[in-house]
Design goal:
The chain has 373 residues and is an all-alpha fold. It has one domain. Helix content is 73%, strand content 0%. It is built from 14 helices and no strands. Helix 2 packs antiparallel against helix 9. The model has no long low-confidence stretch (mean pLDDT 83).
Length: 373
């Protein structure tokens, strides 16, 4: 069984790598589309900032480890986690192939839910719906940590993107009316030059926020796997060189340092490999972007992600940046948005949790039928 635990950890790291190149576009699509950075430079910036962001907290990881599957109803066995990862990985690859910016976060959560339901023979109590209703910040479960943020984070991205864009235009208009040097700085040539430099900072902020939120999800998966293995006694007689696999905190509230560092490095490596299909969709197909628009979208999305990570919410980087771009485009010109592309993205959002969950569910059912569970 120890071999299976190691296989699951490897599969989790494969998911993290795929998450890196699948969601690279979220960090860098706008900075590439506005031609502020070359694709190579943008990928390098995103990889470094993903690494830094992933090392800055574990609240989201703790949610994944303890706030999705009810271990009192279904054992968090290695097979359950492996099937959850398979569902997430397959759906990520499908959407990557078709250039759809779907959510790796929701693919992973859908996989966990589907595998847990299959393991518990369709007992919906296998899923944690809500906990600790008296303390909003400490709430756990799908209702507070997944479904509520799934609706509010895209709305927040859209509204904030639109608001930041309107605020920037108001500042530039005020400078133009002021006259003198301020009026000259408000000219399009100087505005584009300023935001061309500022967008490098906003792209770095976006990369940081992406790593801070997304990398933690795989940390939580590995912690959940080790907690299940510890409970089952699989880790009782580990050889000395594998002693680091003991999860430490039995409640999953703290994530081991080696898990944090490994996931951060793997996500950075995946990001460095790039994801050009989705970059094309986000950066070019939804709305034509200039540096000021890219700055507004990245700053808005990164702020949503950072706040969500603080409260342990595994929200979708894809949702927040996509809707921030939509908000910026709407502020620019409501008619500039390409509705056909947006419809494809929305359908990918709607299908992600049930599709990844269904794949994971069928995988575990197949394992049961084959006698592997």
């Amino acid at each position: 069984m120890l071999t299976l635990v190691l296989v699951v950890i490897l599969a989790a790291l494969v998911f993290e790598f795929i998450n890196g190149f699948h969601d690279t576009a979220n960090s860098i699509a706008t900075v590439v589309a506005t031609k502020v950075l070359s694709p190579g430079a943008a990928v390098s910036l995103a990889a470094v900032m993903n690494l830094i962001g992933a090392l800055m907290g574990t609240a989201v990881a703790a949610t994944i480890a303890t706030g999705i599957i009810n271990t009192g109803v279904v054992e968090a066995s290695s097979q359950v986690i492996l099937c959850a990862l398979m569902g997430g990985i397959v759906w990520n690859l499908i959407t990557w192939w078709f250039g759809l910016p779907s959510s790796s976060s929701h693919a992973l959560i859908g996989g966990l839910c589907g595998a847990a339901l299959a393991a518990a023979n369709n007992d919906w109590d296998a899923l944690v719906w809500s906990q600790d209703l008296g303390n909003w910040a400490a709430n756990k479960g799908l209702l507070w940590k997944v479904f509520l943020p799934m609706v509010t984070s895209p709305l927040a991205g859209f509204v904030m993107g639109m608001a930041v864009m309107v605020l920037l235009w108001a500042i530039i208009a005020g400078m133009a009316r002021a006259g003198g040097l301020l009026r000259r700085l408000a000219r399009p040539r100087w505005v584009n030059a300023f935001f061309g430099k500022a967008q490098i900072l906003s792209a770095a902020y976006m990369g940081f926020a992406h790593g801070h939120n997304d990398a933690q999800k795989t940390m939580g998966i590995i912690a959940l796997t080790l907690l299940g293995a510890e409970t089952a006694g699989t880790l009782d007689e580990l050889p000395g060189w594998l002693a680091f696999l003991h999860p430490g905190q039995s409640d999953g509230s703290q994530i081991a340092t080696w898990i944090v560092v490994t996931c951060a490095l793997v996500m950075a490596a995946g990001t460095a490999s790039g994801g050009w299909r989705i970059i094309k969709t986000l950066g070019h197909k939804m709305v034509k972007l200039h540096p000021i628009h890219g700055f507004a979208a990245e700053t808005s999305s990164a702020t949503v992600l950072t706040l969500a990570a603080h409260f342990g919410m595994p929200v979708s980087t894809t949702h927040s940046i996509s809707t921030a771009i939509m908000g910026v485009g709407f502020a620019k010109n409501p008619r500039a948005l390409k509705i056909g592309v947006i419809e494809r993205i929305v359908w990918a959002w709607i299908l992600t949790i049930p599709a990844a969950g269904g794949l994971a569910y069928l995988s575990l059912r197949g394992m049961k039928a084959a006698g592997w569970l």
